[in-house]
Amino acid sequence: MALQAASLVSSAFSVRKDGKLNASSSIKESSLFGVSLLDQNKVNSVSSSLRCKRAQSLSKNGAIIRAQTIATSAPTVTKSSSEGKKTLRKGSVVVTGASSGLGLATAKALAETGKWHVIMACRDFLKAEKAAKSAGMPKDSYTVMHLDLASLDSVRQFVDNFRRAEMPLDVLVCNAAVYQPTANQPTFTAEGFELSVGTNHLGHFLLSRLLMDDLKNSDYPSKRLIIVGSITGNTNTLAGNVPPKANLGDLRGLAGGLNGLNSSAMIDGGDFNGAKAYKDSKVCNMLIMQEFHRRFHEETGITFASLYPGCIASTGLFREHIPLFRALFPPFQKYITKGYVSETEAGKRLGQVVSDPSLTKSGVYWSWNKSSASFENQLSQEASDIEKARRVWEVSEKLVGLA
Ligand code: LMG
Ligand code: NDP
Ligand code: PMR
Fold first, then answer.
1. Which of 73, 211, 288, 352 is deepest in the core (most CB within 10 A)?
2. What is the enzyme's class at the highest EC level (predicted)?
3. Closest Cα to atom 33, ligand 2: which residue?
4. In total, how many domains does the chain have?
């Protein structure tokens, strides 16, 4: 089914050249540093015709918000038969932020198996198309759809477009993130939430909540919702103790709407700190994954999981860091902490959490040891606080307009 398309992609897209996969193949992770300090032992064949209509408008913060709708032909996801036996149809997985880094590497890893169709949910349509092409992803293995997590309207629009495309949803991967380590002043999403928490947590929270029905409706044998977490949000690790440390406090800033006006831009109500805001957003990601598990796993059979893929020190995540940091961070992680992983290896890891039949346990925070074997890791006290998870869920519901 081809939907109406208004116009072709405008040429106003900015496309950078950093969408390439890292060729490095280091697969080790620190056995000393990468593990919990508390317990060292635990240590369809789819042919898409893509067209888009885009409009630009100014948000109240003056930031340019792009509204873009994509029309795509629906995939053929019929069950094929070989020698009279039914074989499994292709899985259909949405990956947010698949235009670079971990998201792109995961999209590529899944596409290459021939068993997955990847919906690349990205804010920069052309960048995503280019990235998929230069990563060598087969043309019929992916569909790019516009999603800007820093706008709740865009999240709703994405869900709408996705449903219109009539593709099943078997796995949702909440991967996209922004990190503003050098920002002195907060910036805000379209709705006026501090950008890191607004994008990494609130945008994904609304997306996941809206897509729960689609996941429930999937007839795929293993349905999963995966939210990318991080070691740096876990204060039971050395990395999580590098200042500024994550801390959600009593959530007074979040409850106030993180708007920096009559409320703090920080979840705990403190002064703005970009690195802390990112780490706090990762704690929210890990708490929300567990809250999903408690609320929906039994009823739906969906697997909810989070992970720390390793330190992928050369991704675009550090684009706003000072040049000296960007130069020293990869060798520091490679040779000193030994926590470094390449984008390719990290993509395989997240790919496993999407599709490996042995990783179906729900409520788990996955990590990998130095031999690149997965294990169930322990979250910090705050990131496993049941009461806090419930409160983050309830406050977030109000902020995104679900309650
Ligand atoms: C802030 O600085 C920034 O201000 C902010 O913008 C943001 O980036 C934020 O977290 C992100 O960091 C953090 C600052 C804190 O870090 C630095 O400035 C250091 C930058 C280092 C970057 C890599 C440098 C590498 C240096 C080595 C050079 C090698 C070059 C490689 C060449 C290899 C060739 C072979 O940093 C500090 O404050 C320093 C102190 C940090 C120590 C933190 C550790 C705490 C440990 C606590 C122990 C935990 C205990 C828990 C309980 C244990 C129980 C057993
Ligand atoms: P990248 O910057 O390479 O990738 C982040 C992706 O998120 C990009 O595709 C980016 O889009 C997208 N994105 C950012 N803002 C938005 C938005 N408003 N709407 C939609 N998409 C958006 O970083 P990584 O690959 O490193 O990060 C991926 C995940 O891995 C994150 O969740 C991060 O927290 C996590 N992680 C990373 C670690 C690391 O060491 N790198 C360690 C632990 C966890 P665009 O391409 O347009 O910029
Ligand atoms: Mg960290 C000891 C192991 C270890 C690991 C696995 C990481 C991962 N880091 C470790 C140690 C240290 N780091 C130490 C000892 C220092 C002080 C020198 C240090 C510093 C540091 C900085 C300044 N590290 C950082 C930063 C960042 O800006 C990154 C960050 O916090 O982003 C939020 C970062 C990271 N260290 C990691 C990982 C995975 C990151 C990337 C961020 C993430 O996505 O969570």
1. 288
2. oxidoreductase
3. 177
4. 1
Residue 82 lies in a domain: no
* Ligand number with the minimum distance to the CA of 324: 1
Looking at ligand 3, which atom is closest to the CA of residue 318?
28
Distance CA(198)–CA(207), nearest Å, equals: 12
Does 36 fall in a domain? no
pTM more than 0.90: no
- Domain presence at residue 43: no
- Detail the DSSP E strand segments found in 24-129: 51-58, 64-71, 81-82, 85-86, 91-96, 116-122
Q: Which atom of ligand 2 has the smallest separation from the CA of 98?
A: 9
User: What angle in degrees, to the nearest 10, is found between the helix axes of 204-217 and 152-164?
Assistant: 20
Please give the residue that has the higher pLDDT: either 66 or 27: 66
The ipTM of this complex is: 0.86
The verdict on residue 368 lying in a domain is yes
Domain coverage including residue 207: 91-400
The two structure tokens encoding residue 258? 């993180």
- Residue 85: predicted pLDDT: 57
278 has catalytic annotation: yes
Which of 142, 220, 278, 365 does the annotation list as catalytic? 278
CATH number of the domain to which 275 belongs: 3.40.50.720
Q: How confident is the model at residue 88 (pLDDT cuts 50, 70, 90)?
A: confident
Average of per-residue pLDDT values in the chain: 84
d(CA 14, CA 50) in angstroms, rounded, equals 18
